[in-house]
Write a structure and sequence with these properties.
The protein is α/β, with parallel strands linked by helices. It has a domain of 236 residues. It is 45% helix and 14% strand. It is built from 16 helices and eleven strands. β3, α10 and β4 form a beta-alpha-beta unit. Bound molecules: zinc ion. Zinc ion (ZN) binds next to loops.
Length: 511
């Protein structure tokens, strides 16, 4: 039996399970040879069982992924059936029956009723169905967020115990990283965890310096989560990505699939952040930086281990696929010990990766926790997909603009661009639109774009100001992509949410 989790009330078929995955062929690498899985060499013909992988959580996450994605993936087949109904007498009724049965909602009546004039308006029905799937998904998983918050309290305790009073993670906006927190790193929603996504992991250094100031002020004023004299640190993490199967085509689009360039760019921003604080506040010792690389084909991470001065090297890292392979078959204690040893040993490497000794004890413990969490994810991909994701490239269902949906963090569900104004976020937006011109427009489907911001209900007037901001962003997007808009190939949806996690979604009409 699977664990009970969000989505269990709706019977949904499972993601491809290993019994079926046995029939899967190893994918071809870029040079045409069959790939060898970096963590489990016997894949795809044998199932991996790592002693530290959390099977119950993997089962629950598989159901979440399947039920969220299924809401979106049923849309096109249903629309094909609707289009085939043609001008039958009871078209509206039949179309709505199909929609209710397979999608769980009705189509907008006005759109169906117009069908007899110019035929079925597939782009409008498609977009409205995507936005309905999104709203239903948020509703379904807001319950889950409350559970995560409870779990997050133990994450907060772990972070403070490791000597961190805030962790701020920036990743690439690529949809394949959308499951970074719940899946790849297994980090629940938490008060001490901030997240953002930017094309190519080119995060906003100034914004993060402001966030650092807010975190330090809070410690000074409220003593939360640690007092200002306690010596805990603010940790800034950057996550870049590459593809082991096809490194020169399926890597980070923002860096032309050049993993070295992607790494260097992320490291450079981390160093600018740290240096910026040191220069302005002469207290650089209170910040730590960490660089993580992700293989989007297997979800295995590598963690670049800082030295005793907190400095990073592109050449000094622990590869978790290697660790999985090395510890497979060990008992839990041996496996844990091997992971801790790997982190210690990497600090002794010479040559280009040489650094000034080991990082502090809390950093080593945090890295070990992240690596152990990620072992479960490597096994998740092995168990549900035969080791490698079948959608090795882009397959996002919509573009998410603004603050993003905390509830919907699943691989390839959305291309996420975190932005406050279109002028500032235009590079990220353009990358997203380029991806969707290929994914949707070339197939005759429009681009669904969901603009979403959160507000603080404690601050008077904030909600009204956020609505105005959202409408301003929507108008700027329409102006920038007027060609798509006039061709009926761009649909926008606006929503806001109180920043308290698990709050209901409030739709904002876009004039
Ligand atoms: Zn990227």
């Amino acid at each position: 039996m699977r664990g009970i989790g969000a989505g269990d009330s709706i019977p949904m078929p499972m993601a491809r399970q290993f019994s079926q995955a046995e029939a899967v062929q190893a994918p071809r690498q870029f040079d045409g040879t069959p790939a060898v899985h970096p963590a489990c060499v016997s894949l795809p013909t044998r199932q991996c069982h790592h002693v530290l992988a959390n099977k119950a959580e993997n089962d629950r996450l598989a159901r979440c992924e399947e039920s969220i994605k299924q809401r979106f993936d049923e849309i096109v087949p249903v629309l094909k059936e609707v289009a085939a109904l043609g001008a039958s007498r009871d078209f509206t009724e039949q179309a709505n029956r199909l929609a209710e049965q397979h999608l769980g909602h009705r189509f907008p009546d006005a759109v169906l009723e117009r069908s007899w004039i110019h035929g079925v308006d597939v782009p409008t029905l498609y977009s409205s169905s995507v936005f309905s799937a999104l709203t239903a998904g948020v509703e379904q998983f807001s319950q889950r967020i409350h559970q995560e918050l409870a779990d997050g309290q133990s994450l907060d305790a772990l972070l403070v115990d490791c000597g961190f009073h805030a962790v701020n993670v920036s990743a690439c906006a690529d949809g394949r990283l959308k499951g970074l927190f719940p899946y790849i790193l297994r980090l629940p929603a938490s008060d001490l965890l901030r997240r953002s996504a930017f094309a190519g992991t080119l995060f906003d250094v100034e914004d993060d310096i402001l966030d650092w100031q807010a975190a330090e002020l809070r410690r000074f004023r409220e003593g939360y989560p640690s007092t200002s004299d306690s010596g805990t640190r603010y940790l800034k993490v950057a996550v870049y990505h590459g593809s082991s199967l096809d490194p020169t085509h399926q890597g980070c689009a923002a860096h032309q699939s050049n993993e070295k360039v992607a790494m260097e760019a992320a490291l450079e921003r981390l160093q600018q952040f740290r240096q910026g604080i040191e220069n302005a506040f002469c207290c650089g010792a209170s910040t730590d930086i960490l660089l993580i690389g992700l293989d989007t084909d297997t979800d295995a991470i590598r963690i670049h281990v800082p030295d005793s001065q907190g400095d990073l090297s592109l050449f000094r890292f622990v590869d978790n696929a290697e660790l999985y392979k090395k510890t497979l078959g060990m008992n839990a204690d041996q496996a844990r010990l091997t992971i801790y040893e790997a982190i210690e040993n990497v600090s002794d490497v010479g040559g280009w990766g040489q650094g000034a000794g080991k990082p502090h004890d809390g950093m080593r413990r945090l890295i070990a926790n992240l690596l152990i969490n990620n072992l479960s994810q490597i096994e998740y991909v092995a168990e549900n997909y035969g080791g490698w994701y079948p959608d090795k490239g882009h397959g996002e269902r919509f573009i998410s603009i603004g603050d993003g949906f905390q509830e919907l963090q699943v691989r390839n569900l959305a291309y996420f661009a975190r932005l406050d104004t279109v002028e500032e976020g235009v590079a990220d937006l353009d990358v997203g639109v380029k991806i969707f011109r290929h994914l949707n427009v070339e197939q005759g489907l429009p681009i669904p774009m969901a603009i979403h911001y959160s507000y603080d209900a404690n601050v008077p007037g904030h909600k009204d100001r956020i609505v105005i901001k959202l409408q301003r962003v929507a108008a700027a997007i329409r102006a920038r992509y007027s060609d798509l808009l006039s061709a009926g190939m761009l649909y926008l949806h606006g929503s806001i949410q109180d920043q308290k996690l698990g709050s209901p979604l409030e739709e904002v009409p876009l004039p």
